[in-house]
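Possible regression after last week's pipeline update?

I re-ran a chain I had predicted before the update to compare outputs. Posting the input and the new output here so someone can diff against the archived version. Not blocking, just want to make sure nothing changed silently.
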Amino acid sequence: MSITPRYNLLPGTEITLLNRPMAVTGSNDVGYTAVGLEDGVATVVPYEKFVEYLKLPGARINSAQPANGDHIRKRLGGHESIMSLKNKDQQALGRFHVAMCQVVDIYVALRQEDDPRFRPTVRNLSTLSARRFIAEQTTLLLEEPVRIAPRRGGEKTKARILYKGRTILKYYNRYKKLGNGEGVAEALVPLTHLRGNRSPRISVPLRDLMTKAWGEFGFDLRGYSIANVHQYLETLVHEENKRRILNELPELAVPSKKTLREHRDRLVTPTEYAIVVDGLRETRRKHGRGSTDFRALMPGELCGMDEQKMSLVTSAKEKGFWHTLSDETKRAYEKADEYIRKRLHIIVLFDVASRMPLAWIITEHPNAEATLALLRMATRDKTREKIRYGCKNDPAGECGIHLLRNDNGSGLRNSPVIASSMGIGTINEITRTYSPTDRAHDERFFGTVESCFFKVMPGYTGRRPGDIPGYDAIKNGVVDVELLYAMLTRYLVDEYPFQKHYGVGIFGRRPWDVYNELNDTRGKAGVIDPHTRRIHLGWQVCTTPSDEGVRVFEGIWFNSGELQLAREEQFFKGKVEVFVDPDNLNIATVLMPGVPDPIEVTLQTTAFADMTLGEVLQLVAEYRREDPHVTELYHDRLMEARTRRYADISSIGVEHDLPRSYSTIEECKALAKAVFAGARVPRTRQLDGTTSPDDVTNLAQSDGVFAIGEEPSVIDGTAEEVPATSEPSSDDQSTDHRTQEQQSPGASASNPSPPKGKAPRTRKSQSMKSARPSNLKELK
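New output (post-update):
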């Protein structure tokens, strides 16, 4: 059972609980009775609540007020301790007086053992033996040299000179009068901070003019200097002196610039002046209050991501066909092999809890693709970078990201990045603009990389324009991007994690040690599901599956039994979505409409195993790369072989008189004209024992027509409508078709046209009627 303490607080004790100042007036069975010093309201504070209130911030108890009127604090002008005094020499004098009085107390006690009637008087404390004893013991107690007299010849010394007996006795009597709980140093310290003439040296009219100069001119966003404001003040004082001369008043003297600056400091605080001159946004950036708390307790809980333009000029050699040019062309185009020097951007993602870098990317233009590559690198294993660039130590492993903090950079704050981060379960936090205190860890990381890595590299441009005016960064920018990324990787893996870090929560430890300790004690953020990671961070390709699987990027095949089984069971026909991690092509994810779960497919080309997509494309490009001269040589040989083959085929057809299996252009045009002319002349066959109507009416003699009577006469009769001629039979069409196929263009050459002057027979042609063909598909 706990006992509630009850403290004996004297009436008049000042207490401050819950930011309310009160004075204790007594106590009862319930608690302490108190009266508010500001509102005068009587309050009863229960004993158990009083103990809890004392643990809260802002709680204070001043028990010296009822005991001695708190005269010690009032003596120092409200200062609680000598440590709050501005004058350091004044503080040192207070400590010297305390040590001296303690030694005098010891000296008096020793003398009274031999002589009980010994009393500390001016004479007794002025003797040489007493002064030597006091000086020697004070030196040991104060740990500063104390002498009984200055050096001979007026030589300067840093040692303190012991007072005479009268002054020693004065401080000793004050020391003996102190009660319990009263500050000794505060009672013995000299009041040198109150010395001097405290009356104002500047008259009220001049002070008003100084205030007017600052208010009307000095507090401007253009940031006028003290000299500018001082010139404006001179103008105001000159105009005021004109009026004072007319009224026979003394002229006002123009104060100095230092006095003008001190008057400004009395008018406004430094933060207020910064707001007036620099604006609220810049003041918040410079004087904003940061956080000195632990912002994360395990790796992956909070990660910072930021981008910065490197203060380094890099070189990217322009790739062309320089080796294919002749000497004259090389001399004419010397710029074809020049170096393109530019400044790139670096994007870094690091863990706040351990200060370990998780991912780093160098890009020409910060965009969504570069940021997604950064997230993929942070959430995967980085053994590939360790082996490729020859790192001696292990980089930080893969882990999930709970909270991702970034600034308002265009490459970081965009819809693809935010959507992808939300897809993998990461909360995306965008900090305020121009607020570096929100991202103090990010800024500190880039500052370290700038000073320790980029500054020593050739091509360094400096932190600001004109930082190193004598150094030509353009001419010295010879480091290419691949070498720069390799050196940066080795620095972030082998150097930075093993340097001592004095940030909040690290306390001089090395980031690698902090990372391992947090991994063992608290663990890391949960790893992301591989399918979820590929779907939201990978590259998406829409393709049609087949029995061979799915093909992406024009030649990389993936397949699995699960994919083929889903195709068979769902009777699927259409396109599927394939998600590939460009950093690892071993496994891909397929989303098929109608199938709820993602389908895992594996790489079918084993030669591409454990390779990135960029490495695969580069490998294929190397395979396809060929010297232009060799290409031309192979082309000539190929055309020569084809020409020879076609010549052999033609000679075989001529030697063996083979029919042609092709048509000429003229034949195709004639056939097309006949097909699409819109009319067809069918061939008719005369029936046996009949005569055509034209032959009957023809006056000339014809077969099958006989004259009736000897004289020409008119036959009376009525004409009957003859039914329409029926469509030609299939036999007629097939006969006509065969007749046309048997004719060849060579036949026209063997059967020339009739000579001029002889009219061709037109009897049958005139009797033929044009009609629309019924079946055009059978025409050729």
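Follow-up from reviewer: compared with the archived run. The longest strand covers residues 302-317. Marking as no regression found.
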